[in-house]
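Thread title: Can someone regenerate the structure for this chain?

I was given the following input by a collaborator and told the matching structure tokens would be attached. They weren't. Posting the sequence so someone can regenerate them.
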Amino acid sequence: MLVRAKYVLLSSGELRQGCALRIQGDRITEIGSYAELARCYPLDPVIGNGKQLLLPGLIDAHTHGAGLSFIQRGKQYDILENALLDFESSVDISPEINSMLNAVRHIRNGCTTIHHNNWGMPLDPHALENSRKRIEGYRKVGIRLGFSCGIRNENILAYGEREFLDELPTDLRKEVAYLTDYDPARAAQEFFHEFHTLYREYNSDAVKVFLGPNWVQGSTDDFLREVKETADSLGKIPIHIHTLQTPIQRAYGLRTYQKSLVSHLDDLGLVDDNLVLGHAVYLSESDITLLGERKASITHHPSCNLAMRNGIAPILPMLKAGINVAMGIDEKGINDDEDVIMEMRMIFFLHRIGAFRLTDNPALSSKDVLAIATRNGSFVSGYGDELGKIEVGRLADLILVDLEQVLDEPWSAPDADILHMFLHRGMGHHVNTVIVGGDVVMRERKILSIDVETLYERAREEAQRRWSEVDARYGRTLERIRPYYQKRYDKWLLESQYNPYYIFNSRT
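Best answer:
Regenerated them for you:
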């Protein structure tokens, strides 16, 4: 197969005009002029009209696979520690349909790879079955997948949940005590059984299975040590863990360990080049230095962090320190539609805030943002350096963008920077064609692998049925807990002094 375009972004950073690629199997085998390749391979089918922009497929390096968004399920965004109550009490649909919807949304916006960080409860008897369904859903649609098995084996109800139970009134304590009635060691054992089973069944060129304990404050030390040992024994596969997403998590680390959660991870031996921190908003300068020295990675979620009132992750100092920064939407994109191109634009603009000295931290370039959204996400998603670059030998994960829509409404300067124009004006619906591993999964905006309307009808029917069956009593119980959360965590924040990287405006 030949893929032709007006402009092709090569791995060198060169934007080559009049270029084409040849794909054999799942890889790029030749790059040259379209005229020459068409002459050499006259029987090859041709994708692209020669007027488009050809880019590496975009990578969402952190998602949880929600086919129906939080907003669609009738909830509003809140700080994470409050929102967890909403997550638990909101309507949901089957794992397979969720994954398929999530994949369709991503492909339509130019995303060829998803890292699904699985969210797990301890000792869930359906965990393995549901994970299989999630993976199969993604495979049916045809998106490339990184799948990290996740679980919390402590602090399910709250950070420091045993103490929190004592702070509740007797009647409420009795209603929620079952949430804390689990054996952390047995939960860890079940988790590793699930992981090894999925790794054996699914780990392949198209699906990478790795480890994703949900967060530091939800993991016992013994569990995290075994996670590291397991990852290293399998060739240092990634370990993805939410870390310092909120100021409350920062306060938890200081109260519990008298140090940063990153320092605690380092004490356990986890800070290494296969560690990936999700969000990482409240890193200290010493955290950033350490992560850079160890060549760790983070996933950056600007829209989600704003929606959940987390703050702004200091990715400019991270990049300067040598940390690998990838992009993740985390199901809370600015448009609520998994538009990875809009998320790229959010990254570009958010980090132009004036709190930084320009000489120390220059603003991101268009190529910087594209790297965050492509090649930087390759390792994070379990694929080493196989993705995010257009060069011979790389996996053929590619998107064609309709340049006429981006540039010609009604005119653009002939010498305008094409990538800069794309970053500022492009949107998901400008993606015309998506290729994953040499397979065309979307052409002329039509998903080819499944019947999307049939999928949508299944989702509507199931969502309506489950909405009607939502346990209102359970929801009311969780709402009664909310003020006790707030009282507890407000106290922590008052005790925890910190200076954010971003100082928005002056009071003097």
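The chain has two domains: 2-55+396-447, 57-324+331-368.
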